[in-house]
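hey so u asked for the seq, here:
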Amino acid sequence: MQTEIEHLLASLPAAGISRATRLGLALAPQLENEAWRHLVSCVAGLTRTATGARQTLTAWLGDALAYGGGRGRGLIAECAEAAGLDAGTLRNAKMVCSRIPVSCRHDTLSWSHHCEVGLAFSEPAEIERWLALAERERLSTSALRSRVRMHVATRPEAAPRRSADASVAAFRLMRELRAVGRSLARERPVWRQWSPSAAQLALAELRSITAFVDEVRARALAASASRPRDPSVN
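ran it, structure tokens below
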């Protein structure tokens, strides 16, 4: 695995990287914005073209994005497309990496183990407790997932947390929709040149999006119809 990591690192700008492992990528401190964005782009491109080490590269890309914090609005959507990953997978990777530093990851566990814990918990002490438990009991990813879900479901604050999580999910979806809207506006000259066959193919690919638009429009119209009419308006 170390040879594989060294091979992957050879394709990246070494100046921005201080440490690389199977489970993460530690970036050099005070990396300039231009150098950081270049590194993110390189990792995304490597993720698409590499034939193996998918989990390692996903973790590396999550670390690179987490390093930037709130910089690079809309960057996740661009990176997902460049890396051939689902945007949700990349958002999750960024969150896991922001919660579990490279130095706190357990070498005996997989990236999937860290995702199960990092997505469920935010407190460092609780994260470490669950990672240590998974390591000590040699839990599979699915076994760890079951244990974590059972624990979360039985916590007194579980219901309010689910409500808060729903609000966060809605915010993320709206942010993603805005990013897609900007991308479509930017590429308008391209898709206006599409042939009828290309347009049909695009509609097939966008079936879930068109269904989303139809349902949201129906809900908005239903809300408008349910409002009491102002008698002063003829």
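The first helix runs from residue 2 to 9. The radius of gyration is 22 Å.
lmk if thats what u needed
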